[in-house]
Amino acid sequence: MTVALEVRDLHVRYPAPDGTVVHAVQGIDLHISRGERFALVGESGCGKTTSALALMGLLPRRAEVEGELLLNGSPLPRGGDDVWRAHRWCEIAIVFQGAMSSLNPVKRIAAQVAEPLVAHGLMERREARERAVELLEVVGIPARRMGAFPHELSGGMRQRTAIAMALACKPTALIADEPTTALDTMVQAQIFELLVRLGEELNLALLLVTHDLPVVMRYCDRAAVMRAGRIVETAPVTDLYARPGHPYTRQLLEASPDRSRRRDREDAA
Amino acid sequence: MSAPAPAPALLELDEVEARFALAASGLPLRRRRGGSVVAVAGVSLRLERGEMVALVGESGSGKTSTGHLALRLLEPAAGRVRFDGEDVTAVHGRELRRLRRRMQLIYQDPYEALDTRCRVRAVLEEPLLIHHRGMARGERTMRVEQALAAVGLTPPEAFLSRHPHELSGGQRQRVAIAASIMLEPEFVVADEPVSMLDVSVRAEIMALLAGLCDAGMGVLLITHDLPTAARYADRIAVMYLGRIVEQGTPTQVLERPAHPYTKALLAVTPRLDPLDRPEREALRGEVPDASDVPAGCRFHPRCPVAVEHCRVEDPRLRPVAPGDGEQDGHAAACILVAGDG
């Protein structure tokens, strides 16, 4: 398997106005192959989203980023938006939580999905529009909804639209940052089943950023557990579950709800 | 069950309905059925002292409205709500206020539930100032400190003069719970009390609620998460589109689910064991709008096992599996479930 996405010794620091520095990400290493589903798991404030944004070159300007990012073997550039533009969305894309904030509220969804194709100079407007309709069909939006505005769609449909948009320029790596927050159990399952299917069909390196360990166990191959800016453990999910190596992993496992833990415990072992 | 005069349940919902009038704009005219949607369509539920009952469902299932009906924050369009034997729906004014002291609501979002400008002391004193106007300041302080200690915020003095923004999410939810137990209610509705919190904090907050329950309080837990319900509740009621479709103990509902909707929910609820990945696919489509309820069984358009008759009959809850005996309370609303008939 080819390594699609690699991170070596990533540090992110935020200087505060009072001269102190918040060291949000303290030297993490990751590698994700094509076709692999990898999770970065941790609780709020652990640095998982900051790490994901660093991979997209989307951190605020004041953030100091250090370390090596490699996409399909070649190092990602340092620098401003101009440098990033060639890579972002075309090689690595992201789906955020709550798609309402990443969609343009006054633009019909097909036009919205076509936008990156035109902006990156990949297609003429008409061709891009056709491709957008195709993409939206792939993610399960019925043909009659192509002209809908985001607010006319359910949360699940909006997230499908965001996924279609992220995949428009055929990236090799896709980051999904808490993609199902605020979605119902059944819709959450639909979105993850979609991501799994697309990951397999398009041979994507999938990076799932989440706090939800059961979701990781169900849908991912490997995972890194993150705490306070550091990765405490990286392992295949089967090992993480059967032989958690770090006390924090054990603590997260213990705190996670599972159907085997029941108050009435009628048939508890 | 057949005792001549059973003690009244702490809370009893009897075929309650909640309706919401539709705003003038919004849905097209032809879809406004008499200008209202039925969010809760005949729900019956019993909750005893010291018992935690979980209402589990997706958004739009009517679980929050049911909680609001129980507290009479919503006026039922039909049916009865009895609290400790007393018909809540018939009570007004001073009597209602007296009842309200005995029941409380814990909100989902601890960031919104607390007034950002009030210190913890003021937040917790407010219910006392309203409901016990004559109470001396010294006693108020004592009650506030007791409540803080009860929710694990110790030492209480360290928290009294803090503002909400100086607290972590878990601490905020503890303060919100402290505020709702200030008047020593006998019954609380906890509406998604941990969904905004980190996993490790969730377990602590749920344990806190379970502790209050063990001390005799009745808790109606509203959640979308079956595993959380199973871990802490004594009984689970699964809701779909305004109805309870299945109820029973956690073991009954999780190990022997009878309703196809419960089965579908369980099939897609991730388990911790990564080797336990059932092949079952998520149901297609989404929960229909409450303004457009399917005829017959409300679940039939999405049901993987629906038969022709499901389009016609609107099934009511009936006991599951006669072998278990009638008193076990496992019931499902599906014509395909083997009942005791």
Describe the fold and architecture.
- The complex is a heterodimer of chains A (269) and B (341).
- With 269 residues, chain A is α/β, with parallel strands linked by helices.
- Chain A contains 9 helices and 10 strands.
- Chain A has a 6-stranded mixed sheet, sandwiched between helices.
- The mean pLDDT of chain A is 91.
- Chain B is an alpha/beta fold and 341 residues long.
- Chain B has helices spanning 63-70, 93-100, 110-113, 120-131, 137-150, 157-160, 169-181, 199-214, 226-232, 250-255, 260-268, and strands at 11-21, 36-47, 52-56, 78-83, 86-87, 103-106, 187-191, 218-223, 235-240, 243-248, 318-319, 331-332.
- In chain B, helix 4 (120-131) packs across helix 5 (137-150) and helix 5 (137-150) packs across helix 7 (169-181).
- The model of chain B has no long low-confidence stretch (mean pLDDT 88).
- The chains are: A alpha/beta (269), B alpha/beta (341).
- Chain A binds chain B through residues 43-44, 154, 156, 184-190, 193, 211-215, 217-219, 237-238, 240-241, 251-267, and chain B through 52, 58-59, 169, 198-200, 202-203, 210, 224-228, 230-234, 249-251, 254-255, 264-266, 268-275, 277, 281-284, 286-287.
